[in-house]
Inverse folding.
């Protein structure tokens, strides 16, 4: 979208769960995708956000009409380091919007175990906006584009890109 991040990413903490652990004693890769998915869902639907003119709202999708929902079209995930399970340490997830298309967007995600640590997991999720009244992709309007632009940033550095 841009060569440099234009704003701070959205950040949230997701509680570690005992079910996240696999037989090897670290967080299971499928459970980590669920953590990333929860962070993305919080950002789109439940995050306490503030508009450029200081008006609070809940979730990026608040800028879209009520008949619009989102569907995941793709996940690209890279595991960069082991994630040992510590049920008392939350996962730290940062998100940014790395691409806005006609009816879709890409969300870049980074999962860390500490604020100053390198990411353990990098991911990019493509989301298609769906008009539930027609069952067809919804052409994004300027209101939603404006909200998304506040979280614009460079794509996460996935390998092979």
């Amino acid at each position: 979208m841009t060569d440099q991040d234009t704003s701070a990413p959205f950040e949230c903490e997701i509680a570690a769960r005992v079910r996240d652990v696999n037989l090897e004693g670290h967080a299971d890769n499928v459970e980590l995708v669920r953590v990333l998915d929860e962070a993305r869902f919080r950002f789109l639907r439940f995050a306490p956000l503030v508009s450029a003119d200081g008006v609070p709202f809940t979730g990026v999708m608040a800028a879209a009409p009520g008949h619009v929902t989102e569907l995941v079209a793709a996940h690209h995930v890279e595991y960069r380091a082991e994630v040992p399970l510590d049920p008392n340490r939350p996962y730290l997830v940062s998100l940014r919007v790395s691409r806005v298309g006609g009816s879709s967007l890409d969300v870049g995600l980074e999962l860390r175990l500490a604020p100053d640590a390198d990411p353990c997991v990098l991911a990019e999720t493509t989301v298609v906006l769906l008009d539930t009244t027609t069952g067809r992709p919804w052409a994004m309007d300027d209101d939603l584009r404006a909200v998304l632009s506040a979280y614009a940033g460079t794509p996460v550095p996935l390998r092979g890109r």
In short: The chain has one domain: 10-149.
